[in-house]
Amino acid sequence: MRLAGAALNQTPIDWENNLRNIREAIEQARAARVELLCLPELCLTGYGCEDLFLHDWLSETALQHLQTVRGYCTDPGMVVCVGLPVRLDGRTYNTACVIRNQQILGFAAKQWLANDGVHYEPRFFTSWKAGNIQDFSFGGEEFIIGDLTFEHQGITFGFEICEDAWRSAQDRPAGRLKARGVQLIVNPSASHFAMSKTDVRYQLVLKASRDYAVTYLYANLLGNEAGRITYDGEILIARNGELIKRNQLLSYKDVDLEFADVDFAQEPPVTEHITPLPTPDEYRELNQALSLALFDYLRKARSKGFVLSLSGGADSCMCAVGVAELVRLGVAELGVEGFMRKAGAYSEDEIHFARDYRQLPGGPLVEPRKETDAGRVQGASHSAEQTTGNEQLSLNQQLTRRLLTCAYQGTVNSSDDTYLSAKEVAESIGAVFFSWDIDQEVQGYTGKIEHALGRALSWQTDDLTLQNIQARVRAPSIWMLANVLNCLLITTSNRSEAAVGYCTMDGDTAGSISPIAGVDKAFVKQWLVWAETELSYPGLHRVNNLQPTAELRPLEDMQTDERDLMPYPLLNRIERLAFYERLSPQQVLARLEGELVDADAEQLKVYVKRFYSLWSRNQWKRERYAPSFHLDDYNLDPRSWLRFPILSGGFAAELAAL
Ligand SMILES: Nc1ncnc2c1ncn2[C@@H]1O[C@H](COP(=O)(O)OP(=O)(O)OC[C@H]2O[C@@H]([n+]3cccc(C(=O)O)c3)[C@H](O)[C@@H]2O)[C@@H](O)[C@H]1O
Ligand SMILES: Nc1ncnc2c1ncn2[C@@H]1O[C@H](COP(=O)(O)OP(=O)(O)OP(=O)(O)O)[C@@H](O)[C@H]1O
Ligand SMILES: NC(=O)CC[C@H](N)C(=O)O
């Protein structure tokens, strides 16, 4: 039997898009003579409809659209499994509908709901009780829903819907399905991307196929579906412990269909040893997920591009490279025209220029503006503009130039190093680069407050105030640029900063999308070193030799993040122990003492106390970050992975006891 899975890039309640992708997958499957096609979990509505799943009209509309999908399934030789919610008696069930030759054979319902990390399914859905089957009617027809098995061309199959497969052997449906004679388990999934997670999923599918001696067909959603979570579009087909098919992850396509043949007449031996996947390359995985997430966000928000306050430091440079990679990977997979059309951010004229460019290599897509200033003007009251001025921009650089506008916003505390780093990164990727200074605005606000208070502000008495005003003064102009260009403003916070609130609210946190807020600072720095050589961005050379610094205090103060806080690897370790492993402050300290035998015990205690008090004090800031992407196996976003009280005792007793 020819089995296929299709990863689909869906959007909540975008019926037109979702139906188009479902139809495309079915047509591709038909053309490939597929006999059983698995589409991802809840692909008809989108997985991320949130509380809409509690609305009667949503599942009614989904059932109406299912009639359209039924119309696509005209082939008696092909079964199609499509995911949608079904609401009965005020309860919503997460189902996979099985269709053959326009006939609905039944709705298999999910038995175990995902309720960890980024998943909150029990809020929306009711789990289906194993063994139960029920009738229901819709549109004058009778259907069956529940713990069903199906038969196609003599092969019996049943379902595990995503989380069903992540439960223990006693709980998950697989064992009961096997006892009912099932030869094939189909798993439609909405399994969020996290670095290295493919390995976990691979093991899960391969082991299930071995332990239950079945064929296992798995299909995941694809892309940044609803803003925060990205799906990698993984398709896996395995039999008796052997992998038959695995696809390239994180495609830019709307539909990624993979198929393979399984001869059910033969019964190959069950393989005890599961061949491991090569260790996933997390730098590359992150690159693909970040850039696809940005691409989908851009087009689904119907925006024209991104604006970025580019400091030349690690975080903002990583965000800039993320946009350049969005172009590089998108063009590589979709072709120039396909990429430009799908992005939705380019005009017809630009698409025409791009076509000509391919015939006339070296011709500029966008007329480069003249360079107006040879360098940054320290302390100058006027704004100075820098552009690349390079007429030999590659096509990808020119496409990036249309999507990304950056500005360096210097003060007297900024260094030439960061200015040059920002300029070199922007130029190397082709982004538009402006530079102006903000001292006048800083002085304007400071003067007003000094006048109102009747005293001068000084670094001795007003350190944080004088730091924060600089970060805040950068916000209005960069927002203005985002407004005028109809672009999304990227804010560059990383997870380590978010843990301790090392950011100025309404200053460097200003923005509408926060792509790297789920990634820790140590990883950001390592990733940039990798990207300089592996992705060939020589423009990153300077930033890779800089110490992370906010540059908010006078230069002679030699401010660095790690002097203000603590070494980043230690900060990340404390954060992970405290909020991933969920240890108490006492346990965290004990673990650190065990791991870092040469460290000064008193200093470790100071760092642990600092971490917890900054953590507690700054929950309100984490509540206010712009929407961020989930990329690592956990994040600190209170709207996705981690909830914590805004006001709390701040671990006072626990820290005092250390
Ligand atoms: N529980 C609570 N709920 C609501 N609001 C609360 C609050 N606790 C304090 N606040 C408010 O928070 C205000 C303080 O917050 P905020 O003004 O943001 O600033 P704050 O946290 O005092 O200081 C910002 C820190 O971030 C660092 N920083 C800033 C900018 C960039 C970078 C960089 O790495 O580039 C680093 C800077 O060095 C400093 O250590 C207080 O004035 C108070 O109004
Ligand atoms: N001189 C500057 N010009 C433009 N934007 C700036 C400047 N200084 C800070 N910013 C903005 O504030 C953000 C926060 O600064 P932060 O120091 O945390 O990050 P970074 O400078 O990118 O990296 P690093 O911490 O490694 O120096 C920057 O990413 C940038 O968006
Ligand atoms: N949609 C789901 O049921 C997802 C749950 C599963 N634990 C995963 O992360 O892949």
Automatic annotation (TrEMBL):
Which region ranges are annotated with the description Disordered? 362-392
> EC?
6.3.5.1
GO BP terms, alphabetized: NAD+ biosynthetic process
Example GO molecular function? NAD+ synthase activity
Which residues participate in L-glutamine binding? S191, K197
Protein name in UniProt: Glutamine-dependent NAD(+) synthetase
List the GO cellular component terms.
cytoplasm
What does the entry list as the binding residues for ATP? T492
**Pathway annotation:** Cofactor biosynthesis; NAD(+) biosynthesis; NAD(+) from deamido-NAD(+) (L-Gln route): step 1/1
Q: Which residues form the CN hydrolase domain?
A: 1-264
Q: Which reaction does it catalyse?
A: deamido-NAD(+) + L-glutamine + ATP + H2O = L-glutamate + AMP + diphosphate + NAD(+) + H(+)
* Protein family: Belongs to the NAD synthetase family.
